[in-house]
């Protein structure tokens, strides 16, 4: 580099001398060709350029390395994050499994305690029943012994009193049955008398020009509503219910009423009907 400026100075110094020589000789001379390039300077410039490129390459490499390092650090952070999440899920599953196991153990313990309590209650109840049975047996044996003593004792009047009491009870039952039968017969007779009295009531005479059949139809129509069965409202009343004595059913409805336990009630007073008696009307 020091040689290059010196050469340039020499060329510049030689150039005025040539010009003076040309001027003196008054001859025109072609300018000299440019000096050849200074090889050391070119080499130095190339070296500088290469060094600059190398430095740029190193900077780019450093930047790429930094980018890769950043990417690697982000990947590591993401991996650690996923690992933590997986660990949290694993712990949650383990905690849930532990809680389920504890709940199952508590249920099993509660069931076992309930079974033990039921067995203890059953044993206690059985023991109590056994004690009560023994006490009842003891009382029965004591009463039996006392009764045997009373029976075997001479002159005991209780046997005759018991016979008289049973006889009085039987007599009372018979008398009650007779009273009920008399009441039922009285009601039947009263119902039959009422039916006969209803038939004997005078009816409006038929029109002068009507025939006997028309008068019978008129008499039937005048009874309609009073002599109809209260259930079917169609057939004539023929039966009296016992014991209430209501004359209100036809033969078909009376049979159904007596035959069916669900319908065995008087439709008028709702009293239970024991039987039904047929009553014939007089003309």
UniProtKB/TrEMBL annotation:
GO molecular function, a single term: zinc ion binding
Biased composition annotated in UniProt, kind: Low complexity: 40-55
Name of one Pfam family that matches: zf-C3HC4_3
Keyword Zinc-finger: yes
Gene3D superfamilies, alphabetized: Zinc/RING finger domain, C3HC4 (zinc finger) (3.30.40.10)
Biased composition (Basic and acidic residues): 77-120
Domain RING-type: 229-270
Protein name: RING-type domain-containing protein
Annotated organism of origin: Haptolina brevifila
